[in-house]
Amino acid sequence: LHPPAMSRRVVRQSKFRHVFGQPVKADQMYEDIRVSKVTWDSSFCAVNPKFVAIIVESGGGGAFIVLPLAKTGRVDKNHPLVTGHTAPVLDIDWCPHNDNVIASASEDTTVMVWQIPDYVPVRNVTEPVVTLEGHSKRVGIISWHPTARNVLLSAGCDNLVILWNVGTGEMLLVLEDMHTDLIYNVGWNRNGSLLVTTCKDKKVRVIDPRKQQVVAEKAKPHDGARPIRAIFMADGKIFTTGFSKMSERQLGLWDLKNFEEPIALQEMDTSNGVLLPFYDPDSSIVYLCGKGDSSIRYFEITNEAPYVHYLNTYSSKEPQRGMGFMPKRGLDVSKCEIARFFKLHERKCEPIVMTVPRKSDLFQDDLYPDTPGLEPALEADEWLSGKDAEPILISLRDGYVPVKNRELKVVKKNILDNKPPTGPRRSHSTCDPNFTRPALEEVLEEIRALKQTVQAQEKRISDLENKLCQFTNGTD
Predict the structure, then answer these.
(1) pTM of the full predicted structure?
(2) What is the mean pLDDT of the chain?
């Protein structure tokens, strides 16, 4: 017989127990960025394997800056911005199926979708690919559908959630009369069949957007009055952050089958910043970043009690104004990097790398299960008609190479197409009856060619400017 002490595991086995965070060296940061000071609890930063985008201060309108990931160091004060909004930008989100497409939501009540070129443009980007108008108040939340192409969600201070088909510029669904107050956050589940929302009315709701139904709700998952956040886990459970009656920050884990009682509810500290949860389904780790905090706490979610296991805290001296979270395919697998954050300070963005220490240089397949790639699993109309599909996964064994710029094509449906012509054509019409379709095609072709020439010239000018910068070596 074994003595009982030998057979009992004293320490929980987990390959993530020793995950540690480290900031990059000073020359790998992005310096001299005027990060937005708007009071709003979004992350202010969005990243993908090609770009980092940050909401910035801008006089008289709303703007964000987009930097190629490799363009670290001091940012030129004349670096072009994305400046189409007429009031501050409140949220930005990169499209999960196209690394050159980003959406922005603004106080000006609109959502805009932008195509970002692979080269640095010479002038500000002012023309969105499409502007989505449907909210009557400011729009504070946007989120792309995880598996369906061109489906974008927006939530505004008019308490509406709208789903858009970006490829046609149309509203697909409007979820109204569901939220009685300000919506704090909205999150998709893994295949995009359900939404979870939190609201100022202290309720967490699980919504089937296509049936336009609330399928589950929980009043007061946290008793405190301050904002709650909620996200879906890969297995369908819900993770929440909020505050207790005594204003202590809490986290909770909930099962929809028994939404009344939490699986886990833990208290953390008495800071008053809202905790933004970032989740990696591949490792089942949740990272909690409070706005105004100077730390990132992280927890592993498992199926055994106590279900939410504290791993560690990354601490620093400077508070964070916002945080970007790199998708898994943008990480360096050769260094056993399992997460990368982009921490916003007042005037800079500092990448923080989370690593699992390993001695071997080989690919660690237990750390990197296949992960969602760029390919969407569904088209927008398939999803709308009721189809669901899991994300299409890719292997990271040989690292991930970002693909070339793919253009987002918006095909607006022409309302004139389905109306019958009204009577005979007037003889004094300004249209030239001899202006045939081939002639029109010719003009359009010429415009296309001119556009391409202008883009090529802009790229050339940009390349020459970059070369010139290298020659002058930063001296004026």
Answers:
(1) 0.84
(2) 90
